[in-house]
Design a protein that fits this description.
Helix content: 25-40%
Number of domains: 1
Largest sheet: 8 strands, antiparallel
Shape: globular
Number of helices: 6
Order of helices and strands: EHHEHEEEHEHHEE
Number of strands: 8
Mean pLDDT: 84
Low-confidence stretches: none
Distance between the termini: 14 Å
Oligomer: single chain
Strand content: 25-35%
Structural class: alpha+beta
């Protein structure tokens, strides 16, 4: 697998995914995507034309991609205090699956559930569990920064719309599933996570 830069077509795909997402994704659409850059990780020698067909498979490796996503999110979270990765899920507070979430950190907004992983408690297993909870294709994750003491108070809280807007404003990275879940796109406000 190798890092590949993708251009304006990727920005349009990400914006379309955010449009189809839920509340947080809609808030994140306020981020100026054109001010960042987008990368993906694909097998060496991937066909450049296939790289631009973000909603088609046959180009990547799902296991290697999930490993890359989990590792990338952990590196981001572990590089500074107060960082979080929030994954949109298709679940509502009333869904029976919530009882299986005892090992996950989560918050809600308007009845919708969001899984999150915060710095200080990050492991690839925790990120994989949050990614699994997302269970939506394409998955959407927002990597953002808050004060560490604020993150400690999120578990099980019903968020106000203003806090979701603040999370969107503080977004460093947006991860979106692509290539029929064989890889993902990473939009970065700054240089990609190394």
């Amino acid at each position: 697998m190798e890092e590949r830069s993708v251009g304006a077509e990727a920005l349009a795909y990400i914006d379309n995914c955010l449009l189809r997402g839920s509340t947080l994704a809609h808030k994140v659409r306020s981020v100026d995507l054109a001010s960042g850059e987008v990368i993906t990780y694909l097998p060496e020698g991937a066909d450049p034309r296939a790289m631009l067909r973000f909603d088609e498979g046959g180009i990547g490796d799902q296991d290697a991609s999930r490993s890359w996503v989990c590792s990338l999110v952990c590196r981001y979270l572990n590089s500074a205090a107060g960082r979080c990765a929030v994954f949109e899920t298709p679940w509502l507070c009333t869904d029976p699956c919530v009882h299986d979430w005892s090992a996950l950190q989560w918050f809600s907004h308007a009845g919708a559930l969001f899984a999150f992983v915060a710095s200080g408690c990050c492991s690839t297993q925790a990120v994989a569990a949050a990614l699994h909870a997302a269970r939506r294709y394409p998955f959407i994750a927002v990597l953002s920064q808050f004060s560490p003491d604020m993150l400690c108070r999120w578990q099980g809280v019903d968020f106000a719309t203003e806090l979701l807007g603040e999370m969107a404003a503080r977004t460093d990275h947006i991860l979106v599933g692509a290539y029929d879940e064989e890889s993902a796109l990473l939009w970065s406000r700054m240089l990609p996570v190394k």
